[in-house]
Specification:
Strand order of the largest sheet: 1-2-3-4-5-6-7-8
Number of domains: 2
Structural class: alpha/beta
Radius of gyration: 20 Å
Helix content: 40-55%
CATH topology of the largest domain: TIM Barrel
Order of helices and strands: HHEHEHEHEHEHEHEHHHEH
Distance between the termini: 20 Å
Largest sheet: 8 strands, parallel, barrel
Shape: globular
Number of helices: 12
Bound molecules: flavin-adenine dinucleotide
CATH architecture of the largest domain: Alpha-Beta Barrel
Number of strands: 8
Length: 316
C-alpha cells in the first residue's frame, strides 16, 4: 500500500503529511517498505554470569531473524575456546546462522588451519577473517609471527582453500590507522576479495557522508561484494571516545553535544543512543543500503529497539 493510500485509509489527507515532510526514520518504517536485513555481533562471555546474560540477549534477538550473527575473537586469540563454544552452541541450540571471527594473532599457520578445519567439520559456514591487533594494544605496531599468516588477505585465502565458507572481512571508512591512504585500504580490500572474501563489514562510524564517499571509491575501484555498515549504538560516550581514538574513528561534535552532561544519566543516554543509531540506519536506507551489522556489546535492549524502529519484526 502506498503512503498516500495509508493516509487516506486513516482519514488523513496526504497534504497533511507530505512524504517530503517525513524524517528518515518515518520514511524508513512507512508501510509497504521492506525492512532492512540485520546481523548482530557478540563477544564471547568471560564468566558464567556473562554467559547467562549473553544467552538472554541472543534469545531476545533471535526472533528478529538476523541474516547472521557473529562472535568476535579476543585480542591475541585469547578467546579461542570461548568463541568456538559460543558459535557451536548457537549452531546447535538456535535457528541462527553463526559466523566465527578468526585472527592471525599469535598462532602458526598450522594452528589457524586446524581451527578452520574444526569449524568446517562442525558445520560452521561463515568466518569473519581478520588480521587482529597486538594483544593489549589496539593501534599498536603489529608483528606477524614468522610461521603465521601476515594479514587478513593470507587468512582469507587459507579459509577459502579449506572449505566452502562465506568469508567476511573488515573495512574502515575512515582509513585503518596503519594505512597510508584510502587508496591503499581499497587495494587491500581488492586483494582480500581476490583471495575469496564475499562480504565486507565496516568498522563503526558516525560520518555518513564520509562513509558514502568511501563506498563510492570502493565501487569505482571495481569491488562489488556487499559492504555492510557496522552500527555501534552508543550509550557510554566516554568509553566510545577511548575506543574511537584507538582505532582512528572521529566523533562528530553533535554526538558529543548530545551526551554532554549525561554522565550520571544512563537511561537518557540509552534513549539518545537508540535515536542516533536509528536515524543513521534510516538515512543510509535512503541512500540505498538495506543491510546493517550491529555491534551489540552483548546487550539486546538498544538493538532490539532500533530494529523495531526500522520495521524489523519477529518472524511470524
Ligand atoms: C567488522 C570488524 C570485526 C573485527 N573483529 C575483530 C575480532 O573479532 N578480533 C580482533 O582481534 N580484532 C577484530 N577487529 C579489528 C581488526 O583486527 C583490526 O582492525 C586490525 O588492526 C586489522 O585487521 P584487518 O583484518 O582489517 O587487517 P588487514 O586487512 O590484514 O590489514 C592489516 C594491515 O595489513 C596490510 N595488508 C593486508 N593485506 C595486504 C596485502 N594483500 N598486501 C599488502 N599488505 C596487506 C594492510 O595494509 C594493513 O596495514 C575487527 C574489525 C572489524 C572492522
Amino acid at each position: 500500500m502506498t503512503l498516500d493510500a495509508t493516509l487516506k485509509e486513516a482519514g488523513l489527507s496526504p497534504a497533511v503529511a507530505p512524504h517530503s515532510a517525513l524524517g528518515p526514520v518515518a520514511r524508513a518504517s512507512r508501510p509497504g517498505r521492506a525492512p532492512p536485513r540485520v546481523s548482530f555481533e557478540f563477544s564471547p562471555p568471560k564468566t558464567p554470569e556473562a554467559e547467562e546474560s549473553l544467552w538472554q540477549t541472543i534469545r531476545r534477538l533471535e526472533p528478529l531473524a538476523p541474516e547472521f550473527v557473529s562472535v568476535t575473537y579476543g585480542a591475541g586469540g585469547s578467546t579461542r575456546e570461548r568463541t568456538h563454544r559460543t558459535v557451536l552452541r548457537m549452531l546447535q541450540e538456535t535457528t541462527l546462522r553463526p559466523a566465527a571471527h578468526l585472527t592471525c594473532v599469535d598462532a602458526s599457520r598450522d594452528e589457524v588451519d586446524a581451527v578452520i578445519r574444526d569449524y568446517r567439520d562442525a558445520g560452521i559456514r561463515h568466518i569473519v577473517a581478520l588480521r587482529g591487533d597486538p594483544p593489549g594494544q589496539i593501534g599498536g605496531r603489529y608483528q606477524p609471527r614468522a610461521d603465521g599468516y601476515r594479514n587478513a588477505t593470507e587468512l582469507t585465502a587459507a579459509i577459502a582453500g579449506i572449505g566452502d565458507f562465506e568469508v567476511s572481512v573488515g573495512v574502515y571508512p575512515q582509513v585503518h590507522p596503519e594505512s597510508p591512504s584510502v587508496a591503499n585500504d581499497i587495494e587491500v580490500l581488492k586483494a582480500k576479495v581476490d583471495a575469496g572474501a564475499t562480504r565486507a563489514i565496516t568498522n563503526f562510524f558516525f560520518d555518513i557522508d564520509g562513509f558514502l564517499r568511501f563506498v563510492e571509491q570502493v565501487r569505482k575501484a571495481g569491488v562489488t561484494i556487499p559492504i555492510l555498515p557496522g552500527i555501534m549504538p552508543v550509550s557510554n560516550f566516554k568509553g566510545l571516545r577511548k575506543m574511537s581514538a584507538a582505532c582512528g574513528v572521529t566523533l562528530p561534535d553533535w554526538l558529543g553535544n548530545l551526551f554532554d552532561g549525561l554522565d550520571k544519566d544512563p537511561d537518557t543516554r540509552r534513549l539518545i543512543a537508540c535515536a542516533v543509531a536509528a536515524e543513521m540506519c534510516a538515512s543510509l536506507e535512503d541512500e540505498g543500503f538495506s543491510d546493517f551489522h550491529f555491534y551489540t556489546l552483548n546487550r539486546a535492549d538498544l538493538v532490539y529497539a532500533i530494529c523495531r524502529v526500522l520495521g524489523v519484526r519477529e518472524a511470524a
